[in-house]
Amino acid sequence: QYMAAARPAVASPVGASTSMIIPGKTGYLASSAEEWISALSALAVDRDRARTLGLAARRHAEAAYSLQRAGFKLVEIFQDAISSTGRSRNVDAATVAGFGREWTMFPQGISELSEDERMAMFEGYFGIFPWASLPPNSVGMDLGCGSGRWAILAAPRVGHLHLVDASKDAIAVARGNLAGASNVSFHVASVGDLPVKDASLDFAYAVGVLHHVPDTQRAIQSIARKLKPGAPLLVYLYYAFDNRPAWYRGLWRLSNALRIVLSRSPTPLRYAASQAIAAVVYWPLARMAALLDAVGILPRSIPLSYYRDRSFYVMRTDAYDRFCTPLEKRFTREEIGNMLDAAGFENVTFSNRVPFWCAIGRRGPHRIDN
To answer: What are the E-state strand segments in 103-237?
Structure first.
């Protein structure tokens, strides 16, 4: 209530307060009487500081507890009531099964994707990743590795790479795609039960994964605990079209209604419909964007212009991914920044090019709690 009223909050570091309050940015966490007195005194003396913290607190409250977030939370409550095991592991069983099918159908190995196309897509997501700052023989993790399509290019750059996915079918595909790599290991596990020690990783990345889990904030915190202080985390989360016009968001709402129907349809129908969408929607719009780009008049907001340089195979894969996944969330840039802040990440930066939003932050020095 204080945060919603643009007032900085002071609370004990227990329960939800640890994720609601970002120390020094939206309020203070106080573990002792002395810390309480110090925090309250600071706010009473420096009214400008209190006003700044209060405004930041309200922005955080609006982002974290919007109607969209409330809707997702309601879904979580129903999911929790159905499966306590899924709750603790932070997985949605139907979504995991769907991705197992997807990567079996679209393995994206070296025979399906050209080296140039794989590298171009890799740079789109990983262009802001600080490879040069990693320590020698660094150990990292690919969260939700899927087919291992990114690990193919990431593994040769590091000492060891853990590939983690909740789907055993996806891990089987990843094993095949990285059969020649000697510095990788494979784990069937969820983001809620990561199979490495706390503070043991030099880096991690989760590209196109954490918007498909029931609790994205808790997933980011789970990853943070496994990172060493100062270690970078790269995340790519579906964006809420916060940098797009209203008509663009309206088109998404229509497509999302179709996704909700298709993702709950029989598997053969899902596959056939997604491939038809790739052929009659993705391909024509992508080719039109390519022509407009060639003559230098490509509008910034033309839908699916990202695919103007992509193969039809990638369009087919992404159409299946987009319309056949039961659980999907979308986040604004501010919401992603707030989640990373709340999980203890510092120096958060965003890529300002498609695909949106790619963000990177470094694990802070403080202990990460649930």
So the answer is: 139-143, 160-165, 184-188, 203-207, 232-236
